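The passage that follows is intended for readers who have already worked through the single-chain material. We present the inputs for a multi-component assembly, then the predicted structure in tokenized form, and finally a short commentary. You are encouraged to pause after the input and sketch how you expect the pieces to fit together before reading on.
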Amino acid sequence: MRYERPETITDATALLENAPDRAFVLAGGTDLLVRMQNDDFEAELVVDIKSIAGMTEISETQDAFVVGAGVPCAALSENAALVAAWPGVVEAANLIGSTQIQGRCTMAGNLCNASPAADSVPALVAAGAQVRIAGPSGLRTAAVEDVPQSPGKTSLKKGEFIEAIELAKPGPRSGDAYLRFIPRTEMDIAVVGVGVRLVLDDAGVVTSARIALGAVGPKVLLVKEAADAVIGTGLDDAALDALATACSDAATPIDDKRGTVEFRKEVAGVLARRAARIAYTRAGGSQ
Amino acid sequence: MSFDATHQKEQFKSVGTRPLRPDGVDKVTGRARYGADFNMPGQLVARVLRSPHAHARIVKIDTTRAEAVKGVKAVVTADDLPDLTNGDAALFAILDNCMARTKALYDGHAVAAVAAIDEKAAKQALKLIDVEYEVLPHVVDVDAAMAPDAPVLNDAIFTEGVTPKPDTASNVANRSEFGHGDVEAGFEAADFIVERSYKTGQTHQGYIEPHACVASCNPDGTAELWVCTQGHFVYRQNCADLLGLEVSKLRVTSSEIGGGFGGKTHVWAEPVALALSRKAGRPVKLVMSREEVFRASGPTSATSIDVKIGARKDGRITAATATLRYTSGPYPDMWAELGAMTSFACYDLENVKTVGFEVVVNRPKVAAYRAPSAPMAAFAVESAVDELAHKIGMDAVAFRIKNAAKEGTKSSYGPVYGPIGIGPTLEAAKAHPHMSAPLRENQGRGMACGFWFNFGGQTCTDLNINADGTVTLAVGTVDVGGSRASLSLIAAEELGIEYQDVKAVVADTATLGYNDMTDGSRGTFSSSMATISAARNAVEIMRQRAALMWDIPVEDIYWEDGHAKAAGSKYGNLAPLSVKDIAAESGNTGGPIAGHSELVADGAGVSFATHICDVEVDPETGSTRIVRYTVIQDAGKAVHPSYVEGQYQGGAAQGIGWALNEEYIYGDDGRLQNPGFLDYRIPVCSDLPMIDTQILEIPNPNHPYGVRGVGETSIVPPLAAIANAVSNAAGVRMSHIPMSPPRILAALKDAKG
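Having made your guess, compare it with the prediction:
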């Protein structure tokens, strides 16, 4: 196995472009290093991107937060501006693994691992986050929801890797939240995850909503019907019921060792209702 | 010298205090050496090839390509472990489980193993072992395995314990029955009857340290094994038997142990490591991965249990029956029998009958797990007892107190009890502030009782008094829960010296006589008895040495407070001689001073506990949180109360995991779906409240200090206590363990209709 630690994006994309099939990007390593322990897993090339300038920094532009691909999730919660702007995203990222894991793991890695149960992903999708993708032919951006395709598969092309995640600076009266269901209290993997982002008008009516579900399908689901159920409402009980039904209906889970179809569909609705209430309160609404 | 083990001592100086454990600093600084921490020069790395099939005939194994891999020094199959078991079925089961002979009987069953100079070569070689399987139909569920059309695992199994003996083979290995009285008449006399069926999933002990050993077979026919085990003498015997070694030629040293809970009372990898070493002519290190630990070691039985209990309006139970079906993996044992014995052990019953069926299935060979078989039986019985109390309209504790066994009760499994703790633990529960604490919305309280036999067994101990008066204690029971501290306290107590002046070690198999393993809650019970005996023998010698030093008759010297004292006024001016004084002169008075003891520690007092538990159930998700938990258990005499409390808490923690989330999940293909700690969910710290404990001390009449084993009973009540609490919190009676959120939510929806 070859280990490389390029210092520029160009070097990294060149390495990946010319790499054998079993090439992997290393950011936090909390998924990759675990997989490497497995007898059936062999890596031929590992490209560690953390030495590339800017990769482990959170920077701000006029309109957005730019979270480098190597930023550990624990660092997100130390950025007061980011926490104030996107508390749901930061909370989601800090549900991953354990305290020790959070010191290494990254949101970009969480996204590229392409697990349908990834905690930060529904929150990022609800937030409308974009990813900056570096590749042999330059930089492109994509919506977070367009990256994962199915368990373990992303839309990234050979030679590409995620350089950063962009979160737009929210306007007034907006709020987000993420909740997941796990059988334990921590160090577990989502059986259902729900990310909600709401924008309100001065009267407390929802003007814009994005609701994303995790772990209830082969990839994260952005549920338009759920958003429609709350837009134009003051998040009253009827709206919450409609939201829960829309989420339960949209969920397409499987029966597996982590939960049943029936359970996941039901709990998707329950968590959507609870997360929406939190997001609504954060947006300044009062029920 | 004859040893009087009857309970006499009431006042203690060292016993009952809480000094730091002697192995503590090494453990918290990482110096302690566990199974995988031992290395030998030239050692090879071993890897095991395991069956991916739940049930398959092994048609052919070709190791040629694997042997050709550079760096590979040995490849072994069943051919390298010839059958030397001479008709001993239990030993053959161990052999066949270590390395499948004609059939792979579960997903993860070892079929071959490799020793190579490094992991890379070993891994590569594993992939080049060609195994031709003929896949057979499999069965993993206990009830399905008993069905007439179930695939039969072993054509030689004809149900034992039924007359006439069946003439067709089945998966039901044996039937056992216990009880007394006339249950039919008892049910006739009942005003209320509860009859229910229950199931429990298969759990793993979940010890944090995987199995690990280093084996070294030497050219002169001797061999050494360094291993993580609960019983190195038993491992020595098993390995010697399977490899055709004389027992004296195999020296086994036990490492520190990162949890066993019964799972390290059985050999798995050790005979394979020895066979590899014998073939390669070099030491071999074999460390199981977590996945291997789950797939191929450990688990307890999955069960299916029917219970029927009847009682009069006044709350007296008139009859009780249970039918218990336990999986044993592919090899029969006595797991159902233990379940049938323990089911109703807490109660004083006129009419009782239990029947156990031992069922073989395509799952790993079942190993002991902390009070093996009792938690599942207690779950079923204590759930039904609770329901019956509700039905009669009696308080759950009062109902149990009314029916509790006491001294003189003929137990449901036969023996008549001596002084026992079930009544006192129930009375303590009744009086405990936990019982009357307020509950919030969606919270419920449950309680349940539990029993375990406890065990004594063969024990051998050496106590050496060094020239400076300090004491070295060599014991043969592996320290799994602080027994070196407890045994040091015992030696200090008996000799009248300071705890700090005693150093206890676990001796290897070449330096001490045979000891049974640390199981059956026997470590501190039996080794403390042997330690007291050895100390008394050493005191005898010290009295003789004092007699020589003083030149007076030994009959005139008595031992008190750590000193030889001259009796009567005749020697009034002689200052008492301390252990240090006598030890300092030992070179001139006959040489080293030591006490030895070998005994069978009979009379392990039975053990009872009552647990109280508050839970909160989220009615929308079925998620259960343990809000408060209290363990009340009889310790006989708590030698080191902190470690007694630790045992109480540990058993409760494991029981909570078992009750709520832990479970072997098999796919339709018979493969284990969750061989890892991500999806086999043992509780994490934040899942548990501080578990409160209350130690009761009802002395065991058969131990000089009144000690009873404490290690196992604490896992018996939790499944039922939590099920009863969930029932009170959410209004649904859960009959299937684990009570995972999907199961609870489904039950809540069913209840709503």
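Commentary: The mean pLDDT of chain A is 96. Residues 261-282 of chain A form the longest helix (22 residues). How closely did your sketch match?
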